[in-house]
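Input:
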Amino acid sequence: MNREEAIGGIVIFLFGVVTTFFSLKMPLGTFRMAGTGLFPLCLGVLLIVLSSLFLIKLYLQKKEGKHVITVQLPSSIKQLMLFLGAMLLATLFFNRLGYPLVAFLLMVSLLKILGMKRWRTVLPLSFITAIVCYFLFVQWLKIPLPRGWIGL
Amino acid sequence: MFESLQHLMTGFGIATTIHNLLYCLTGAIVGTLIGVLPGIGPIAGIALLIPATFGLNPTSAIIMLAGIYYGAMYGGSTTSILLNVPGETASVITCIDGYQMAQKGRAGPALATCAIGSFIAGTIGIFGLVFIAPPLAEAALAFGPPEYFSLMVFGFIVLSNVTGISLIKSLMMAVVGLIIGTIGLDPVTGDARFTFGSIYLLGGIEFVAVAIGLFGIGEVLINVEKPADLLEQRVLIPRLRELYPTLRDLKRSIGPILRGAGIGFGVGLVPGPAPVIATYSSYMIERKISKNPEEFGKGAIEGVAGPESANNSACQSAFIPLFVLGIPFAPPTAILLGALLIHGVSPGPLMISQHPELFWGVIASMYIGNFILLILNLPFVPLFANILRTPKKILLPLIILFCITGMFTVNNSVFDIWMMLLFGGVGFLMRKWAYEGAPLLLALVLGPKLEVAFRQSLMISHGDFGVFVNRPISMAFLLATAIFLIFPAIRLMFKKSKKGGI
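Output:
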């Protein structure tokens, strides 16, 4: 059994179980007058059935010695994690720091994470991007983006 | 027919106002750029641009968003031919012969054939739309909740069957999408479901967050973990005077273009990623009927003309189920449905009579858009090709910044950005584990409609499930669904029996 595929199947199976569990806590009604929980309950059960079939199929393929998909492990987990971290931090401080500053800092960090080494390229590029975005979205399109403590 | 032409003329009047022409041009240019740049497809592109249309009237908004969709089809061929990297999935087939033509110094004729073929096919597609949509809308007035329910089930099954490598995986994704669609207020009783006390979840999961997350952020994350040398390849940029195809090229292309237009139009009417299936079918047919099939894969112009025409024609006809039935059969039109709903327009059989200016205006704008793209694509090919030189390490941060900005502007909510990032992570894992995002997105958009149709049908029938099979149209859709479900199993059995030597 392909480990990653099996994990995916189990995650979906659990999602089906959770959906079914919470659906049962809602009023189900009858088929004539369906309650709030009936439709999600049907979907949850259907997902459990489908994911079970999928896991059984994977198990049988393992028994036959078949490998359907080769899943490659990330070649740069560190880069991916740093990239994700930068996005999460930008979202976390989006309101507090304000849009132009977040745009600048996000660009700086993402460019550095992706291997752009020279600060004299990274800083002007990030600054110009932040300025262009600020004028495009805030000044021209009048979108009320967070001003943050810099007040722009 | 005469009435349709009259309406189309009115549509041209609407589409040729300065404002709408500008939005059509903007959509076409943005769409071409999206098509040119690998890493962001038409789904994420349209989703990102929806917030920019909030200040517009629905007609101008849909003119611009539709322009992005068919513009991306034009742009996608540029990267396929010059770089052997498809800008979007519908251009994968074009890589085969397009890149070979470029290697032989014939990138110009290949690009020109794409543009001319796309224009001709787009035109045929639009005229098909003009003449088929109104009678189909009248027929669709006979549809009740059971028919809509069966049609949507049919759509999910067909889409799941033709996307990805595993039917069961695609079906799981469709069910996950339907479950996510139940989050928020119950559409019938108004009770909260799966909100866990959060006021942000009362309105449901924002579909734009799911679309940008799955198709934008997910794609970027996949790129981030790969070596960054994909875009740093040598780009073959043809000169303007090298662009024009010879008379022989045109003679060889006209048949594939017309056949591609027909195939694309038919495929666009049925559920599934129409442009992808249309290009594949067109390529296979051209190779089969060609007098020189051995040329395919080595730079046959028919292998470029047919598929590129098919994908544009499919794009146009994909609007028919969206506008006439209110049911999108492909993810980009699902996003357009979301955009229509945001603008207070509910597509369906009554749309043509209730919003004629929107329906006919958008159709006329497609024709104008196709013409703009023909003009844009030939002389500006060197410019678009130069854009391909943008290093990935600059492009990816820019896409992320636009995704975050675009997401915030939908509801001015940071919660939506969190949702987008969450679905970005989900999209990344789905790509790693070979799950398709299209069934999930389509199910999310159609989920509430499906649930309402299901519950209304059972109310009408007093809880009797026979309502779905006692009505002929509904039964026909369910029969077709059953055939699509059984077909892969039969095919598998045949394969096994062949292997067994029977």
